[in-house]
Design brief:
Blueprint: E1 5-6, H1 18-22, E2 33-34, H2 47-52, H3 68-74, H4 82-94, H5 108-119, H6 124-132, H7 141-150, E3 156-160, E4 173-177, E5 191-195, H8 206-221, E6 225-229, E7 245-247, H9 253-263, E8 267-269, H10 275-278, H11 281-286, E9 291-292, H12 296-303, H13 305-314, E10 322-325, H14 328-338, E11 342-346, E12 356-358, H15 364-374, E13 380-384, E14 390-399, E15 403-414, E16 424-425, H16 433-450, E17 453-463, E18 466-473, H17 480-487
Parallel strand pairs: 4-7, 5-6, 5-8, 6-7, 8-9
Antiparallel strand pairs: 1-2, 3-4, 10-13, 11-12, 11-13, 14-15, 14-17, 15-16, 17-18
Length: about 500
């Protein structure tokens, strides 16, 4: 018997999404850890020999790659050539020689190629990157999506029997595949889609799941059918009795739009699942999806460090001395001007990712490189670290016309410790009524200026009797469950 072979493929999360990994199509299943099968076809060579066919064009070892459809019959997907099969498919897509995307609409070979790519888990964004090397008019993920739809290459949804066939399941659990009949069977009731928080991680955990659950319960009482989209089975929001329907899908623009197409909800709520769904709001709006609550424009304004710093200046609300940079050299100039220590804060990041306290210039380069990697092309805020300051969180609720303060919480740790790692006290134990009044005023002014409709969180720093705003999050914060339960 041949020995067990472990084949590894290094791919990003948007190439093989979670839905593909835990629920592959029944007609094209890839198992990368199993006994290799002997090929019964003409292609019977070692992996190293086959890799030579995928050598870069112009190299001495380069050979024309085997045609995709020939490979599909010659290589067992359950064998040792699975990774090579995928690499060959990717290579063939990348090397399509076409001027623009229109001729592909009438090309049956490309249609079959695209369908197979989707069955193997290639995301629209990855296919767009592959085709960018071939097309003059570089396609986006949304243009690939429209191309797929015009060729009728769309996912179907299969059900997970949550009751093991003992009796009829009342809450459908669904996942997408590119094969077979559709089992979604959506209703005609008015429905709202809630985007969950996705995988638990530092800065994005069970706190947001609480908010998603409360939203589902409230919407059900209002007569809406509730649909939860979340890929994390460890959460309460994915329990059978939380929402009317559950889609186990990755929190990517492509997968959310697939569910929207199938369910046709009244709107989508993005503000209860933390930063991950919040970052999808602009793409959803561009695709014509109605975002319920705070507008994507307001979200963009608060998340973009540069634009938010301008807003604070316009409202004459104090902020730590700061500067905006997009490169290491710019960061050095800002840090020298305001003086060390400084805080590095990239825009549009999850749970304080790549934020850092920098004590000296010799440490700056590494942290700026991480910030650029975390949010490519986005502005990075470098602000003066307020040593020995108190940090305070304020949670509020707004409807666009008024702002109601829910809780004012003081951090035990000094300012600079991320709120996801800090302990809070409610009510604040070392903040005067005077300074609390200032925080209330600033929160109200910011909520109205941003046009927040829903929850918002404002982070303040208090030092030398001066209240400064650090940032605003136009969404549910990790302190909302704590404040909600503590205040009743």
């Amino acid at each position: 018997m041949p020995s067990r072979v472990r084949t590894k493929i290094s791919v990003g999360p948007d190439v093989f999404p979670l839905g593909f990994l835990h629920a592959p199509s029944r007609s094209s299943r890839i198992n990368l850890i199993r006994k290799p099968k002997r090929s019964t076809h003409s292609l019977n060579r070692s992996a190293s020999e086959f890799l030579q066919t995928l050598a870069p064009a112009g190299s001495p070892d380069a050979q024309p790659p085997p045609p995709f459809f020939e490979l599909s019959t010659q290589i067992s997907l359950n064998g040792r050539f699975a990774a090579l099969f995928i690499a060959s498919l990717e290579k063939e897509i990348r090397e399509l020689r076409i001027e623009n995307i229109e001729p592909l609409l009438s090309n049956p070979s490309f249609s079959a190629l695209l369908k197979k790519a989707k069955q193997l888990g290639f995301s629209d964004s990855h296919l767009a990157r592959l085709l960018n090397s071939s097309l003059k008019n570089h396609p986006s993920a949304l243009s690939i999506r429209e191309l797929r739809k015009s060729l009728n290459i769309q996912p179907t949804f299969q059900r997970v029997d949550t009751c093991a066939a003992e009796f009829e399941a009342q809450t459908p659990y669904l996942y997408s595949v590119y094969a077979m009949e559709d089992e979604a069977r959506p209703t005609n009731r008015p429905k709202i889609l809630i985007l969950g928080g996705g995988p638990n991680r530092i800065g994005q955990g069970i706190e947001f799941d609480y908010c998603c659950c409360q939203a589902a319960f409230a919407l059900s009482e209002m007569g809406f059918e509730t649909i939860m989209l979340n890929c994390n089975p460890e959460t309460v929001s994915t329990d059978y009795d939380t929402a009317d329907r559950l889609y186990f899908e990755p929190l990517t623009l492509e997968h959310v739009l697939n569910v929207v197409d199938r369910e046709q909800p009244v709107g989508v709520i993005v503000q209860f699942g933390g930063q991950t769904p919040l970052n999808l709001s602009a793409g959803l709006e561009a695709a014509g999806v109605k975002i319920l609550g705070t507008s994507p424009h307001a979200i963009q304004l608060s998340e973009d460090r540069e634009e938010f710093a301008k807003l604070l200046a316009e409202l004459e609300i104090p902020q730590p001395e700061n500067g905006i940079c997009r490169s290491l050299e710019q960061a050095r100039l800002v840090a020298r001007r305001i003086g060390y220590p400084v805080l590095v804060r990239p825009s549009f990041v999850l749970g304080g990712r790549a934020m850092a306290l920098v004590e000296s210039e010799e440490h700056l380069q590494g942290f700026i490189e991480k910030a650029i990697e975390a949010a490519p092309g986005q502005p990075i805020l470098v602000d003066k670290f307020m040593e020995d300051a108190f940090e305070i969180d304020v949670d509020a609720l707004a409807d666009g016309k008024r702002v109601v303060i829910g809780a004012i919480m003081q951090h035990i740790e000094e300012a600079g410790v991320h709120s996801g790692d800090a302990a809070c006290v409610l009510p604040p134990y070392k903040v005067s009524a005077y300074h609390q009044g200032i925080m209330r005023e600033y929160t109200e002014r910011l909520g109205l200026a941003l046009g927040v409709c829903g929850l918002m969180n404002v982070q303040f720093a208090l030092k030398d009797e001066i209240v400064c705003v650090l940032e605003v999050n136009p969404r549910a914060s990790r302190t909302v469950p704590y404040a909600s339960k503590a205040t009743g």
